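the two lines:
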Amino acid sequence: GDSVTQMEGPVTLSEEAFLTINCTYTATGYPSLFWYVQYPGEGLQLLLKATKADDKGSNKGFEATYRKETTSFHLEKGSVQVSDSAVYFCALHTGGFKTIFGAGTRLFVKA
Amino acid sequence: KAGVTQTPRYLIKTRGQQVTLSCSPISGHRSVSWYQQTPGQGLQFLFEYFSETQRNKGNFPGRFSGRQFSNSRSEMNVSTLELGDSALYLCASSLDPREQFFGPGTRLTVL
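prediction for all of em together
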């Protein structure tokens, strides 16, 4: 069945460091891919998305490129801030009526 | 535009009781999905409703049920509560089935 695998956390970085959170997927068909972010005490918010191969989603300095050949959608940011501390979820949607989420990766950014 | 609202935000129940959680989607959104979030299992899909019809269901026992009203508001019900039902219950609404907007969640504690 369809699935999403994310790197385990927590990931701890210093402010202004480069961030990569790996995400790979297994899916039949041509899924849309998403990154959601969850701040403490809140629900999930859509961070960025890509709907077809080679698309790059970007928002708030975060980027991810839909790589069909490697079935990956890694999240990157060039310079993280303390305010980026949160849990990040990779997700896919294949056209059925549900979205499949990865386990989430917790990010801590130290000042 | 108002976001997704969930009530109540916090709930404490005892084993064997039942509980009803409510979700009001963003105006115009006809799809509502429910998820259970726990530290051990991550985000687990419960069910999805569109125009009062359940279109998809996750792998949860029959104690978990839901419904959607003609105004798209949705409720989920858990009967005969167990300790393991303690979780954050998230509701998400969508216009485009791929992109979901989440509420802040209802934190259920079962004692």
